[in-house]
């Protein structure tokens, strides 16, 4: 049963979400190419690790050994974090409709940007509102909102040890994303329940084989960080300890928020570079000055 009236808070321990970590992004943060992240899929016995190491060309084995050691230290750190670190998620399922390039979420206008980069297959320019039932239909649809965060205290761990501090920071980022993955699975199968029969392995989840999408703020289809203010009004992210700076950045840093869409045809895309006319239109819909809007959309403006 969908409850549109209130948000729901979920709390996870580290060991509950560790299996949902996408190690490719962890290793990327440390400067490793994706193939080195495969160490996370190797059985822990010495023989298996040795076989994995010697599967690399000789000139890459030192790098592979470095990845192996980093993974070992990351797992040791996860065991330590499990003692006193909790990850919290909040989500809300809202009545919503698409209205042009806007979403109308519980009466609040949530402006969006339409894709500007042509698709190679010639398909239409996309906007996230395309995947929500239009207001003109007279029938309400549902959009999910979410936020996840590691407790602020975790950002202070190992301040006196630069290596361990960086390690815990990169793990915190991955744990916030992993908790979001677990939360989204629960939403699809139970809370929203639009995919009750879903039965996917974690590797399948991590390559997004499920129905629907979960665009996070700051990602290519939802690039405007200022919409964090709108999400906060609708979701009240303070429930899980997230506060926003005057520029809409989230604190603690290891936090993520965004939308959940269920349409079977929904997919990710990049808005790309936008023209001055779209900046002016979007600023009007956001209720901001064009100059202020340019600051939030700097990465999408022509160089």
From TrEMBL:
What class does this enzyme belong to in the EC scheme?
A: transferase
Query: What region holds the AdoMet activation domain?
Result: 1-303
Q: What is its EC number?
A: 2.1.1.13
Q: One MF term from GO for this chain?
A: methionine synthase activity
Keyword flag Zinc-finger: no
What InterPro entries does this protein's entry cite? Met_Synthase/Corrinoid (IPR050554), VitB12-dep_Met_synth_activ_dom (IPR004223), VitB12-dep_Met_synth_activ_sf (IPR037010)
Q: Which PROSITE patterns match?
A: ADOMET_ACTIVATION
Gene3D superfamilies attached to this UniProt entry: Cobalamin-dependent Methionine Synthase, domain 2, Vitamin B12-dependent methionine synthase, activation domain
Q: Which UniProt keywords apply?
A: Methyltransferase, Transferase
Report the record's Gene Ontology biological process terms: methylation
Protein's UniProt keywords contain Transferase: yes
Signal peptide start and end residues = none
Q: Cellular component per GO?
A: cytosol
What name goes with this protein?
Methionine synthase (B12-dependent)
Organism encoding this protein: Bacteroides helcogenes (strain ATCC 35417 / DSM 20613 / JCM 6297 / CCUG 15421 / P 36-108)
């Amino acid at each position: 049963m969908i409850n549109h009236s209130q948000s729901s808070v979920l709390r996870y321990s580290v060991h509950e979400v560790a299996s949902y970590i996408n190690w490719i992004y962890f290793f990327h943060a440390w400067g490793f190419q994706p193939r080195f992240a495969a160490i996370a899929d190797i059985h822990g016995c010495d023989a298996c690790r040795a076989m994995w190491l010697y599967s690399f060309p000789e000139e890459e084995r030192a790098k592979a050994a470095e990845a192996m050691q980093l993974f070992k230290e990351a797992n040791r750190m996860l065991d330590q974090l499990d003692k006193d670190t909790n990850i919290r998620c909040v989500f809300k399922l809202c009545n919503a409709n698409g209205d042009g390039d806007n979403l109308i979420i519980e009466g609040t206008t949530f402006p969006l940007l339409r894709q500007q980069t042509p698709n190679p297959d010639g398909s239409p320019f996309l906007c996230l509102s395309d995947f929500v039932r239009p207001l003109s239909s007279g029938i309400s649809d549902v959009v999910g909102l979410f936020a996840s965060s590691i407790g602020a205290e975790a950002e202070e761990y190992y301040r006196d040890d630069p290596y361990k501090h960086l390690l815990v920071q990169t793990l915190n980022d991955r744990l916030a994303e992993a908790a979001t993955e677990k939360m989204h699975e629960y939403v699809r199968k139970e809370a929203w329940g639009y995919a009750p029969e879903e039965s996917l392995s974690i590797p399948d989840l991590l390559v997004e084989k499920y129905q629907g999408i979960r665009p996070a703020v700051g990602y290519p289809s939802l690039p405007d960080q200022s919409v964090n203010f709108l999400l906060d009004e609708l979701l009240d992210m303070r429930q899980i300890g997230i506060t926003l700076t005057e520029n809409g950045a989230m604190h603690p840093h290891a936090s993520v928020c965004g939308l959940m869409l269920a349409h079977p045809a929904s997919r990710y895309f990049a808005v790309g570079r936008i023209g001055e006319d779209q900046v002016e239109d979007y600023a009007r819909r956001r209720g901001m000055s064009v100059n202020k809007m340019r600051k939030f959309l700097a990465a999408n403006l022509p160089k």
